[in-house]
Request: fold
Amino acid sequence: MDLHFGDSKPTDEERSAVDALLGPPESSWEGADRSDADLRWARGGREARDRRDLLLPGLHAVNDRIGWISEGALDYLCRRLTVPPAEAYGVATFYAMFSVRPRPATVLHVCTDLACAAAGAPRLCAGIEARLGPGSGVSVERSPCLGLCERAPAALAIKAGDPVRTAVSAPATVEEAVLAANSPGSAPEEPPAALAVPQAGQDGLMLLHRVGVVDPSSLDDYRAHGGYTALRRAFELGPAGVIREVTDSGLVGRGGAAFPTGRKWQATASQPDRPHHLVCNADESEPGTFKDRVLMEGDPYALVEAMTVAGYATGAHKGYLYLRGEYPRALHLLEHAITQARARGLLGDDVLGQGYAFDIEIRRGAGAYICGEETALFNSIEGYRGEPRSKPPFPVEKGLFGKPTVENNVETLVNVLPILTMGAPAYAEIGTGRSTGPKLFCVSGSVERPGVYEVPFGATLGEVLALAGVREGLRAVLLGGAAGGFVRPDELDVPLTFEGTREAGTTLGSGVVMAFDDGVPLPRLLLRIAEFFRDESCGQCVPCRVGTVRQEEALHRIVERTGADAADDIALLREVGRAMRDASICGLGQTAWNAVESAIDRLGAYE
Amino acid sequence: MTVTPLGIPRRMLEFTLDGEEARVPEGSTILDACRAAGKDIPTLCEGDTLRPKNACRLCVVEVEGARTLVPACSRKAEPGMEVRTDTERARHSRKVVLELLASSVDLSTTPEVAGWLKEYEAKPDRFGPDAARLNEEPRVDDELYVRDYDKCILCYKCVDACGDQWQNSFAISVAGRGFDARIAVEHDAPLTDSACVYCGNCIEVCPTGALSFKSEFDMRAAGTWDEARQTETTTVCAYCGVGCNLTLHVQDNEIVKVTSPHDNPVTHGNLCIKGRFGYQHVQNRD
Reply:
């Protein structure tokens, strides 16, 4: 590889941000002063190239310190890692949270997605923009779902510097959001995660039973509330025993695809190729979804323990926790939890004195919904554009860094703890035959008590809505998120199980239950969904890249039309949607049309 | 015609292609098998010298048991697989993909597309006059080649040819995301400020004419480009001892562009800046 770097130089600040991550450069080949040794041999090369996966952390380092990524900073980072500048530019421009153009140090992300839009985000945006015009030192950006739907509308301020400061304002008023942007350091603290769990402290909870009960920053408190009994049990059972328990429990993935977890673990564990990797998908970006955030903020050690169990069972010694960039509080709590666990021998070379080595590294996403797709997530960690790979080969065979990888989302992993402590048979008795265990639902929109609810599989949609106190005049419920589907108010008896929703022609998806009353303009909502997918398409394959644009155009044309006036465009939507579902590379393109289609077919959106 | 090495013998596998038994060597793709059986499957991003990117999704076929359609160019044939290439479902996707492409970019210099549009009854203009298009001006940074991204279908072939698959210059990449994704050099700079070494291998693999020789671009603009009047002569490059083959495209006794045969076992269609562009002295008649 014969790399060409331009002559743009980093500023001292940019250089120091990169060096803080990578250490000082050793040779002039990677940006240090020239020494005698540089005339004899070149450093960098393969050794540096093997650290390609530090590209995304490097971009974060610069963006966190300066607020944007200049040519000089990008080239310097490329020198340090022997990454071609064109590729790094392609990566930097892929993520919404990065900018390669100058911008103010403070960025205020104002959520304009489904729940927030229904809660007045457009007014909030206009108010904020009126107050924080040009010259205010704040760049106001409209953001897809920030995962704060229970406190809609929401805003997230990020002020670059050393250290970077963040502040969340939700529910946001113009004054509070402006305050958060102007001085994130002194903005009022967020309410505890338990406020997002109306059931907090109730008996019978399995996944949420510690949220609001334990101090999320105290390992001792976690242990006092049953923490680390599952890992001890795992060591008693041995890796094969753990996989047997998980298989017998009937646990299936909670990320939306509902694949049997035990089978996935078994397939990875039995691969001869080494090393094996574990990836926790905490890139929760589905509009309307916030359960993983609440779990991570309310009970972070549970995830650390669950990842350790999963790593042990599948023969992985390294776990990557891919956390979405919009969750600063979850990041801090998990960083703290991992450090504490390491200090106490619960992570590291010899976990619990059992001779098993395991450690967890957090990788931050940077604003890309597509990175929740499992193979796109691998590319993102490896320092490439977050584009999905085509399958086969499947991750259990060739995943992260081309090695056998098991990837589970946060909720799936946290389910492993009760499976081990109560035993597979007891766990399998919860729920229904094919959908076992407890399930988390993110209820938001037109309800009295929005939040995360835990119910055993089999509860009906109406029962979950009743828990949250649905308001008068229910018009529709979005089930499963933007990639899910709408159901009518007369369909509330649909059982919330994988098989029950499938029979009803809809999906559980990521566990979103978003209620809309008749005050919500449905066509506008559908337009927002289409806009979301157009924004979030990676652009790799034609059906998704162009199809999402054509669909959004058609929905724009019919936003005020019904009946015969809309018929042609609805026919067009159907044709494009069918091709997207059939021919797109990944789930994003394949499901982008689901919600709109269901609104047309089940709600009669344009009749 | 050059001699193509046969490679090590491979076992044959059997599967069903449109209801008929097909026998192909292990490792063949469905597209290989289709071509061996004389079936014409449209594809734009597949390249004979590059690993399939399967980004255009034009070659999709139906595989029994698969939830979605499958790209024939990259999916390997498996024993017992049942593949149907010409179903209503596959044809529908190809039609829509052609419409989506033709409505967003200029395919006027993409060979075979006009025929496919007709065959699949694709109507690219049904998305209306306001359908988003790229609408970019050609970028002319130098005397060797032109980047006309209004014709770019993002097949990734130039990225792969410039990167680890052939040239190892890594001068081009995809930047941005979604409909705004574009082929770009670092910092979206002019080509002359980039890591480009002007080998022209990206032009060699470009399926749509988004990357072209300046000579061809100028002649097209002047209305003098006429492939019917061109002859092609393959010869050996005289610059060094590697032995690359050059195909000289000659119109009116002038070399108008230089390509290289893809079946050459040494270079597989790749050249360097001298072989590709250094022909002016041949026709210097002063």
Observations:
- The CA atoms of residues 53 and 383 of chain A lie 5 Å apart.
